[in-house]
Amino acid sequence: MSDAEEAFAFHLRVAPGVPAPEREYRFDPSRRWRFDFAWPAQKLAVEVEGGTFSGGRHTRGSGFEKDAEKYNTACAQGWYILRITPSQVDSGKALEWVEQALRNAGRRDV
Questions:
Q1: So what's the pLDDT on residue 109?
Q2: What's the pLDDT band for 107 if we cut at 50, 70, 90?
Q3: In this predicted structure, what is the pLDDT of residue 62?
Q4: Nearest CA to 19 among 110, 108, 103?
Q5: 97 part of a folded domain
Q6: CB 5 within 8 A of CB 38
Q7: 53 pLDDT band (50/70/90 cuts)?
Q8: Angle at CA 36, nearest 5°, toward 88 and 108?
Q9: What is the rounded distance in angstroms from the CA atom of residue 100 to the CA atom of residue 2?
Q10: What is the chain's mean pLDDT, rounded?
Q11: What's this model's pTM, rounded to 2 decimal places?
């Protein structure tokens, strides 16, 4: 787990009214793909994207391509995915988005 994932997990633990997510949730039994954080009942997932400014795996060609396949497959299965960066964790914006998405989860027409 990255430092940003651990920081986000802490934000979720102390946020009032936010249900605990499943970590490293495997959403597709035919693949080894996992979400960093997931609320399966609401079909909401969070991916903490590291290396956004350092040329990490997620920003290079093959890594980006594989991530796109994972995210598009999940969306086709009805998942909503929030992709967040470490700075968005630090600012609190990531937690705000999760709270809003969980509030709206019951209103979605899939």
A1: 61
A2: confident
A3: 78
A4: 103
A5: yes
A6: no
A7: very low
A8: 80
A9: 24
A10: 90
A11: 0.86
One-letter amino acid at 17 equals G
Who has greater pLDDT, 54 or 103?
A: 103
55 domain residue, yes or no = yes
Percent of the chain with pLDDT over 70: 87
Q: Whose CA is closest to 36, among 58, 51, 27, 57? A: 27
Give the domain extent around 28.
Answer: 22-107
> Does residue 61 sit within a domain?
yes
11 within domain boundaries: no
Q: Judge residue 102's burial from the number of C-beta atoms within 10 Å of its C-beta, 0-12 exposed, 13-18 middle, 19 or more buried.
A: middle
Residue by residue, DSSP assigns 74-90 as: HHHTT-EEEEE-HHHHH
Overall number of domains in the chain = 1
- Of the candidates 72, 1, 88, 68, the one whose C-alpha atom is nearest the C-alpha of residue 37 is 1
Structure tokens at 25: 């949730």
Q: Report the alpha-carbon distance of residue 36 to residue 2 in Å, rounded.
A: 10
Phi, psi at 4, each rounded to 5°? -65, -40
CATH number of domain containing 45: 3.40.960.10
